[in-house]
Design a protein that fits this description.
The complex is a heterodimer of chains A (293) and B (307). Chain A has 293 residues and is mostly helical. Chain A has one domain. Chain A contains eleven helices and no strands. The longest helix of chain A is centred in the middle third of the chain and has 33 residues. The radius of gyration of chain A is 23 Å and the shape is globular. Chain B has two domains: 213 residues, P-loop containing nucleotide triphosphate hydrolases (Rossmann fold, 3-Layer(aba) Sandwich); 73 residues, Alpha-Beta Plaits, CATH 3.30.70.100. Chain B contains eleven helices and 13 strands. In chain B, the strands form three sheets. Chain B has a six-stranded mixed β-sheet, with helices on both faces. In chain B, strands 11-12-10-13 form a four-stranded antiparallel β-sheet. In chain B, strands 2-1-4 form a three-stranded antiparallel β-sheet, covered by helices on one side. With 307 residues, chain B is an alpha/beta fold. Chain B is elongated, with a radius of gyration of 25 Å. Chain B is 37% helix and 30% strand. In chain B, α4 crosses α5. The chains are: A mainly alpha (293), B alpha/beta (307).
Chain lengths: 293, 307
């Protein structure tokens, strides 16, 4: 015997319950942006590029782990890269990812009218930008922190990780700190450069120019013109990796190979902080002037 | 209490005066904000949303000062932008749900309400379609759905019928009326199409070059006047009939403007004028071609007020 059918058509009605606040609104924008950038809920072609870039970013870690699995304990420490180097190996891939992520996160909203709709809600320009910044950081963390964390976990499983729990926590902390600083720097730079135009392609070229172009100019200034090597702290490609090296206590051979052995650690951090501040200022200034309605 | 109250509201962009000391009370119901392009409609809406700070004067929306309580206010306001651009590859239900969440609906509630709002605007079956595949009319409905999904107290609609054909336009206007009548949501509708505003609005606020030129209940501002126009037929077997009618009407104290066989009869009571016309036509044995009561449209009112 079957139960009688019932129709539960609630229809549109007034809402009597609690309303969530601005944090929920920010969370929604953050999650919506992450989904949009990664192509979740969109056509297949929107998923290809993020997946491809993420795969390339993870390749060095996967290769080192494969060695570790195949050779095991015989893999000498010299053949194992320090963790901070994993921030440097895929740096161009990270930059490539930034050229996709920030324009998609920011420019798209201005082009398809979402920005003006957001500002008609409890969101304000600062809370909107904060949500976007967090979303871009979260997505970029996949290719910045992901490979290093994978290597740490892989080595730990293979008994090649840090000795003891304290050391493991120390390395994890350094990886997380480095990741947050690098990702914050890249997010500020890419969002700042993207804020200057309403065209995604131009924004991508702008992000690329702001990283690779400035890096080339700094290289020419130091290597060809012979200006002081401390100027390298303004190299958007090199300085973040150098910063990670310093966080891991590497100032010797690694620093020398980068031609900045004599550069004090505080100056490296200042260089990265300066770029981050400059691009955040560009972003905030640009959005302060934008009118929504 | 009014939905929106302004007092001496002034907005200046450099040397350009967008709003010139506008003082108005917008009552509950559907209110039409009318005026030509550049009249200050969008500026007034952006101030009402707390997105612009006025140069002078005060504004209160739903009892809130938008300058100080913008977040609280905007949680209770739905907004439909004039621009017809939406995220192309986003499903209508995702779009409406996302904006309902941003406006303060809990996640599960937002999902259900997005669906309900899309059914309300007639897109229940289409709710999973990407916005880019929808027609202009459907996209306008989606915009309306996102504005009402979070159960606002007030909806601001900026040119909601732009780009719609007459049938779609009718449907959109009916929906707006339904939202106000059935669910008690107040509507401030900005439009330069006066006949649309006249069809669905209870009240109007008319702006011209930033100045308030008319406001109040629509039925008090437009509608039948006391003037009656009667058009007579001049026929050979009744010479002087038109003159006789005119003489009769003047003799009972009515004001008559004559243009050949067309008489415009002014008075204070249209029913008394009609009675007098009936008697005049009967006594003169005149023949009537047409008789009508004059009507003031919103366009007449706006033209008169602007000039």
């Amino acid at each position: 015997m079957t139960a009688p059918a019932e129709i539960f058509d609630r229809g549109y009605r007034r809402y009597e319950g609690e309303r969530t606040g601005v944090w929920q609104a920010m969370r929604s924008v953050l999650w919506h942006t992450i989904r949009s950038v990664l192509g979740i809920g969109r056509k297949g072609r929107h998923k290809v590029f993020p997946a491809l870039v993420a795969l390339v970013a993870f390749l060095p870690s996967i290769a080192f782990l494969a060695f570790a699995v195949l050779i095991g304990d015989m893999l000498s420490e010299e053949l194992r890269p320090p963790y901070w180097e994993l921030f440097g190996l895929p740096i161009l891939v990270v930059v490539l990812f930034a050229t996709l992520v920030a324009p998609e996160a920011l420019v798209r909203d201005r082009r398809d009218g979402m920005f003006r709709l957001y500002l008609s809600t409890p969101l304000t320009k600062p809370t909107y930008l904060l949500a976007k910044f967090a979303a871009v950081m979260a997505v970029m963390a996949i290719v910045v922190a992901g490979p290093v964390l994978l290597l740490l976990v892989g080595y730990t499983v293979q008994n090649l990780g840090p000795d003891g729990f304290g050391a493991w926590i120390g390395v994890s902390g350094r990886i997380l700190l480095s990741s947050v600083l690098i990702v914050g720097f890249m997010a500020a730079l890419s969002l700042g450069a993207s804020s200057l135009t309403d065209r995604r392609a131009i924004a991508s070229v702008g992000v690329l120019g702001a990283v690779v172009g400035v890096s080339i100019v700094v290289g020419i200034c130091v290597d060809a013109i012979g200006l002081r090597h401390e100027l390298r702290v303004l190299d958007p490609l090199g300085a973040p990796v150098e910063m990670a090296a310093r966080i891991f206590g590497e100032v010797g051979p690694a620093g020398e190979s980068r031609g900045s052995a004599a550069t004090p650690t505080w100056l490296v951090f200042t260089g990265v902080a300066a770029w981050t501040t400059v691009w955040l200022s560009v972003l905030v200034t640009r959005y302060r002037r934008l009118t929504a309605v | 209490m009014a939905v929106l109250t302004t007092s001496g509201l002034t907005m200046r962009f450099g040397s350009q005066l967008a709003l010139d000391a506008v003082s108005v009370d917008v009552p509950f119901g559907v209110t039409g904000l009318v005026g030509a392009n550049g009249a200050g409609k969008t500026t007034l809406m952006s101030i009402a949303l707390g997105l612009r700070v006025p140069t002078a004067g005060t504004v209160t929306v739903l009892g809130f000062d938008p300058g100080h309580h913008a977040r609280k206010l905007r949680a209770q306001v739905g907004y439909v932008s004039e621009r017809n651009v939406l995220p192309e590859d986003m499903a209508a239900s995702d779009f409406v749900k996302h904006l309902a969440e941003v406006r303060g609906m809990p996640r599960q509630e937002a999902k259900g309400r997005a669906s309900d709002a899309l059914w309300l605007v007639g897109l229940g079956e289409e709710r999973f379609r990407p916005l880019g595949t929808m027609s202009t009319g459907q996209r306008q409905r989606v915009k309306l759905a996102q504005a009402v999904a979070a159960d606002p107290s007030l909806v601001l609609l900026d040119e909601p019928t732009d780009g719609l054909d007459p049938v779609q336009c009718d449907e959109m206007l009916s929906l707006i009326r339904q939202i106000s009548e059935e669910f008690g949501i107040d509507v401030l509708l900005s439009s330069h199409r006066l006949e649309e505003v006249e069809r669905i609005c209870d009240n109007i606020v008319a702006l011209d070059a930033g100045r308030l030129v008319a406001h109040g209940r629509l039925d008090a501002l437009v509608g039948n006047t006391a003037t009656v126009t009667v058009e007579l037929v001049e026929v050979d077997d009744r010479p002087g009939a038109v003159d006789a009618v005119e003489r009769y009407l003047r003799s009972v104290g009515l004001e008559v403007n004559r243009d050949l066989a067309r008489l415009r009869v002014g008075g204070t009571d249209p029913h008394a004028s009609l009675d007098a016309i009936r008697d005049a036509v009967a006594s003169a044995d005149a023949r009537v071609r047409r008789i009508s009561t004059d009507r003031t449209t919103l366009e007449d009112l706006f033209t008169r007020a602007s000039s």
